[in-house]
Protein 1
Amino acid sequence: MDPLRTSHSGPRKKRPRQTGASVSSTPHDIRFRDLVLFILEKKMGTTRRSFLMELARRKGFRVENELSDSVTHIVAENNSGSDVLEWLQVQNIKASSQLELLDISWLIECMRAGRPVETTGKHQLVSVRRADSAHSNPDPQRIPAHAVRKISQYACQRRTTLDNHNHVFTDAFEVLAENYEFRENEGCYLIFMRAASVLKSLPFTISSMKDIEGIPCLGDKVKCIIEEIIEDGESSEVKAVLNDERYKSFKLFTSVFGVGLKTSERWFRMGFRSLSKIRSDKSLKFTHMQKAGFLYYEDLVSCVTRAEAEAVSLLVKEAVWAFLPDAFVTMTGGFRRGKKIGHDVDFLITSPEATEEEEQQLLHKVTNLWQKKGLLLYCDLVESTFEKLKIPSRKVDALDHFQKCFLILKLDHQRVDSDKASQQDGKTWKAIRVDLVMCPYERRAFALLGWTGSPQFERDLRRFATHERKMVLDNHALYDKTKRIFLKAESEEEIFAHLGLDYIEPWERNA
Ligand code: DCT
Ligand code: MG
């Protein structure tokens, strides 16, 4: 019989409740100065906790009555890792950057040994890897402070940089999500997008099922796939999707600019499986967009580099400033979030001084200028349908009402500040997809927030506003349904503040 294990079984004598402060009647010498212990009372009880604290102190351990920044080891009994993480969050305590959450079994071993024993995986309630050693340290023992906070189900309450430690899992989920998107199954699409998104925010690599305890957005379906990947290194479902005729065809067809799900479905049903067959089929009719998509296909599927995006930015600024010298031109989308490559380059344009007419004319003037210079390979200009007093859209994926144009620009290799410039045989330029959005100056913060993305981050911002704040947010405005007023904002920071959210920097929005 282990007295330490069973000390609280059997009839309990009623004693006056002891607070931690009065437990240690006699002072003990501290022999192990590197460790500062805190024993969690939750699910353990006051009596047993006092007994263990006294015992550990007698053995020379430093045991704190209260949880403080100096604590290095938290010991708990009958609590899971997520129980302890949740408790810590409720205490609103900022854990030190290096803190271990351990099961009582570790303390018991220490008591037996009469000294601190090494903490291993079997003692650790949460096996969290240090972000910086995720790949190199197979037995990490420390928990970063941010991992101790409970993870939110909303991407807008998580910081997601491009440093993804869980590519194996997120790549798999993105394939499955895309397959559901192709099958127009929105529910399953969102399940896998949310799962991928939450894993991208983790500062450690998942290596066992224990690692995902307490993480939101991971339902049974998702967990099964994680388990399979941990055990076999791959998911059979993902493998099947990657080999699926329909998935492969849709992936190929939608890679053409201007081809969406409807067209892909039609071509697939007609029996097409390759782009060359489609391109050469005389009976098919293509839209202007699709014609451009096929014409510049190779350039458009090869991603836009940051050097190319910067060159486009100069081109856009030169043209915009020729007509509206006071305009702000901001690169948005993935590049604003720090991505090194993208499928297009997005810009938001706004002017503090322009009249409504000047504002409306700008994109026309800019695209006409490029047309004259022979730089405009494709242009679809959509006029504004923006109404100042309209309540924001509830649809999380709705396109906004600002005036905008979807373009393909001819970018001269010479304008690109890169070693690889003009290396291609004969061709001296590259076709680049560019989106320009023109917004009224007083809406610039909302437009900037919306056009910075990521799309999943935006979805969760709107979902959070609706469900947690009774507000409606879109790319134009924020509306408080309780107070029935529009909330104004001059900056993204102000929008986060209206929503009661900590500010998340653009490079932390890669959800
Ligand atoms: N956006 C939006 N409404 C939509 C779609 C997108 O407000 N219906 C926003 C969110 C992201 C931003 O526009 C840019 O969109 P993309 O270019 O599609 O995304 P990205 O993050 O820039 O990705 P990529 O790097 O592939 O261009
Ligand atoms: Mg983009």
Protein 2
Amino acid sequence: MELFSLTIHELQGLLVKKEISAEELTKQVLERIEQVEDKIKAFVTITKEEALKAAREIDQKRINGVSLGPLAGIPMALKDNMCTEGIKTTCSSKILYNFIPPYNASVYEKLLGAGSVLLGKTNMDEFAMGSSTENSGFFATRNPWDLNCVPGGSSGGSAAAVAAGEAIFALGSDTGGSIRQPAAYCGVIGLKPTYGAVSRYGLIAYASSLDQIGPFTKDVTDCALVMNTITGHDPFDSTSANADYPDYTSFLVNDIKGMRVGIPQEYFGEGIDPEVENKIKEAIKKLEELGAIVEECSLPHTQYAMPTYYLIAPAECSSNLARYDGVRYGLRAEDADDVLSMFSRTRNQGFGVEVKRRIMLGTYALSSGYYDAYYLKALKVRNLIKQDFDQAFEKFHCLLTPTTPSVAFEFGSKSDPLAMYKQDVCTIPVNLAGIPALSLPYGLVNNKPVGLQLIGKAFAEGTLLRIGYALEQNSQETRITPILEGVK
Ligand code: GLN
């Protein structure tokens, strides 16, 4: 049996019945990594020995009768912007090429507590800036569906790892689409939770008011299981929400009769590949068949989301990335005469082109004289975008859109930064509003996965999982697995 192709809940059944051990499972997934990783290149660091040791410890606990949760013994991967004590955490940047954090991100602490087994740290666009992993300071990751295509980004390594069977689940981070877009391109489930629902403590910051950690999984049930573990209030993160977090599996009921689903017209038509749009329309029909009430609606400020994001995110990044100066972390330029030239040479050598572009944009937008015209204006527009969603959720339980305007594209085909930025038109508004959104696969176009996005109001992840689950239970289009070229 190919254990690497099973879900968390399927594996958990086998582990509980002691039909397999966590060590066997971990070994099999590590073998899978060995088999396909030279093609996919999902990982920056693989923690083989640590993983096997952790798996053996879980097995021992099970033998000793310790009660274990559903993630115990399940091998997983983390995007390389989440701090892992004693394990290199690079953000796929040369400036952090040798950074070994002295502490764990809160999400990793929670996963460790739940008994998950860390296989390694996954590749990403440098500091999470990008939509393809081509901006990684080390190498690009490839899409398991088509090795000539990008896996999406910035969490491309995590998405590709799950799709290729190199991890049972993974975590990514989403600032403008970086979980949902790669999930869509790789044909897996990706959830961007409500801002504040998952602690950002130990997540290396890109744009702090937008960043949010979330899961990549193979099905909706697994997504609910991971959410149960990673959500919750964290005193170490002052933006963490002290809310009631439900048992997300309680929403997996396969009944959506009478649920109201809005179709925002701004997310269809111009700029969206017609074949992708057709697939999304099939999903809409399916929801109607299942008893949902589907209606068109409008989010009139959608067109301003992209320019708003590209002021706010760079502004926050210019501030967050000021700390990389060669003094405290990572790389230090050796060829400098004084401290100031050491700062600037370190930054010049350590940061890639896209990161520099954003630091410059953001510093400009925040500078005196331009602050009101750009940054402050963007904050006001952000509010209007949020109000659009608030109004829509007075009427609808959820909104449905494509996750991305097209399927995965070829390497090098979006070398113009604006063409690359456009990949996130459907995902960025959600981050600006701080609300949750789930991307799930819905069939193929040109043999590459299409992503469908369900958007909910703050803390309504359960509603999204419920609708996603109903689709998954009633359609063949949602569980798709790539056939890797040249791999049996
Ligand atoms: N692609 C977007 C960007 O480059 C979003 C990235 C993200 O969500 N981290 O900013």
Protein 3
Amino acid sequence: MTKKRNFEVLQDGVINKSLAFSREEREEFGLRGLLPYSVGTQELQLTRLMENLRRKESDIERYVLLSALQDRNERLFYRAVIDNIEQLMPVIYTPTVGEACREFSQIFRESKGFYINPEDKGQISQILDNWPKKDIRVIVVTDGQRILGLGDLGSNGMGIPIGKLALYCACAGISPDQCLPVMLDVGTNNEELLNDILYLGYPHKRLEGEAYFELVDEFIEAVQEKYPKALIQFEDFLTPNAYTLLNKYRNKVLCFNDDIQGTAAVTLSGVYASSRITGTPFKDSKIMFLGAGSAATGIADLMVTAYEKEGLSKEEALKRLWFVDINGLVVSGRDDLMAHNLPYAHDHQPLTFVDAIEEIKPNILIGATGFGGAFTREVIEKMTAINERPVIFALSNPTSRAECTAHHAYAWSNGKAIFASGSPFNKVTYSGRVHKPGQGNNAYIFPGIGLGAIHAEMSTISDEAFLIAAQTLANQVSDEDIELGSLYPPLPNIREISLNIAEAVAENAYATGLAKRPRPENLKQSIADYMFDPTY
Ligand code: NAD
């Protein structure tokens, strides 16, 4: 299995099993004397780990413990995450990863991932040779400028690609040695970080304009040359840059932007599922967004495609989608709109949010503002007055930024709201009835899309792939979930969900000529066989 011996074996997180090395393995690898007598199983190690996690006082401490375990014993780390996904996803990803990014320079121990800064210009391809693994299939890249709802965290944003790739492995079985987290460290405009002596990043103001886009270009070209089969996931870029990069590369390179397209698919899936409760077919629904940034606009863009698929013209589709931002209803007369807002700027008089609900009468309200509490009692009551079952999505993360809490949505609507959120909320009992809020977590979508894309060796990812992923996810919401008002399936089913999404996405790629790899006879089995299993 390995030529390594003694401590080299115990220090290699890929092969290390620690106490689970058998007597024979201890003999073979020269481990006698280096481990205590007891030989344990992975299950026993997991029991010990979960107990140690329980003893920690905060989630950030749990994050640090798990991060160290990921370096020390990768398989135990993934076993723990897979078997306890509901409990540990919020620790290795949002909301705790936000805190981890804020404190990244303080809690830093071992380097994970790949850092590129402006001094690497002209040499990115060369320095990529330093990365030991050569068969990279998924790259998650950020420049740290818009980390979750937390703003510019510079190179501290590296926690995001690391966390997302851990979810790729846990949720879709992409092998960890095929994953590459990348920080394009182009500086930061965050003064606090620039003045912090512990700050780990390139200590300059952000590279901007042409020089910035040239560096990204060089990076994309270099990874295409080194890892031609890799999927590139853009993550947490500032909205205008996110759109520029996505539009530049989406038809040329195997890539997508999770904040825009992943969020869109997971939300559309929830909207599809909500029809089963409201009885209003998707094509007849009218949707209002609070917030008109990359998340909300990405959702609307995918919904246009979805409406068109249902036979509506583009014009009819656009008419079903309305936006309100910090300055009120997005209408054609406004001079403060960005390019991505323009298709949704309808001819209408300017209105406040509450007046817009009253006049436009949406069935579904989607909050993506980053502004906690934006859905007030008045907002929920207005939605309830015009809908038998109002559908409310409070997508902003972390929990403190959610547009309203699950409890408020149910209480202010007299138990009628169908509620889903970006951050997890517990079940709520209101008037003797149990309501289960669904979590519109991007992790339902991106791992499956990625798995399908790399398995079929797709050349690009079409909008249709996101529609298919949304529909496949919605189909996995059971009648029991719907009965409790939940728009998403239970998270512990995530590997089966990802496998089904991967199969559907890959099947579509074969049908549309986007797949470069010959189709295996049994596609689903072939994808399942490819999935990394962390059992020893
Ligand atoms: P963004 O900065 O691009 O856009 C924010 C938008 O909200 C802007 O249009 C702004 O005008 C508007 N806004 C801010 N405060 C407002 C207020 N009080 N009233 C009305 N409008 C207001 O950000 P983004 O990338 O679009 O992300 C927005 C939020 O969506 C973030 O908090 C993020 O956590 C969340 N999000 C959730 C998911 C998910 O749950 N699956 C995925 C992606 C993003």
Protein 4
Amino acid sequence: MKILTILGARPQFIKAASLSREIQKHDEIQEVIVHTGQHYDANMSDIFFEEMQIPKPDYFLGIGGKSHGAMTGQMMQMIEEVALKEKPDWVIVYGDTDSTLAGALVAAKLHVKLAHVEAGLRSFNMKMPEEVNRILTDRVSDILFCPSDAAVQNLKNEGFENFTCKIVKSGDIMQEGAMFYKNFARKPSCDIKNDFILCTIHRAENTDDEVRLRNIFEALKRIGNEKQVILPLHPRTKKTVENLKLNIQNLTLIDPVGYLEMIWLIDNCSLVMTDSGGLQKEAYFFEKPCITLRDETEWVELVECGANILAGADKEKILEAYKNYKSLTTDKLPQNLYGGGNASQKIVQYLSEY
Ligand code: UDP
């Protein structure tokens, strides 16, 4: 069986690492990796392949830093060429990026079976490019591997049971990665106090909206007076912070870190503040409270069980959430919200038997 894996962005490298490790246990399965180049610089891409020992991509398409239309179109053209040459049995796509959608559309039009890992997630905010990508990808997939009960329910609500696809609750593929790489976690070289907050901001809804970004940074500045805030800065955020000349005194800004350093930061912080999807779950895996800097989340079960507060980009709400974060539940969390940490095993087994 030949699998064509489409990757392009940081969270996809992290997810694919676990699946690749599982695939390597099966001699009868060959994985061909296509890296679209959506994230391509050293600390957003190379470091993950090196540190996490993800097999080197068989194809690097070099398509990054363009508009959504240009990227998706160019990716489709080049992925189609690869798919025609490689003749895979399956195309696997992850998550919700332009690389995901491009891979999905190519597979659907070439009639190659398509599996979507992290299917069924919804923010119900169609202004997010990620929401558009995930809905369209889900609709053309043959197998929808869902990380949570909420994801399965979303698909049922949208009538996916009436389509020819299969909905499978595989559990979340990030969980096993977090647990596996915990053993290799590495302290970053910057100055780190005993009690610190880990913060990441990269979503277009925050970085491309001056009012929202200013509000978030004003709140962080106030919080930074009390506690160290470590912020590995995504290149998109860095650019806007510099353009808007935002006040970053009191904050420990560092370059994006590799996954081993990230895992150390999550494991050792006292609070996570983020607009990242992946990091909200990782906070839960490491039993850390999380303040989410978005108006909605795809990981609703974390808010429902009291591990996560949605504070949006409202300065007062963020400060209020910070004041109350110690009351967030972290020690008696429900255990298996995202499956038992064996999603990649389930996925490979399901594909083999399909
Ligand atoms: N991450 C990382 N280094 C960083 C920032 C994030 O390794 O400097 C990891 C993070 O732990 C999570 C993943 O990247 O596993 C999330 O990626 P991102 O926030 O870019 O995307 P999202 O999850 O929102 O799609």
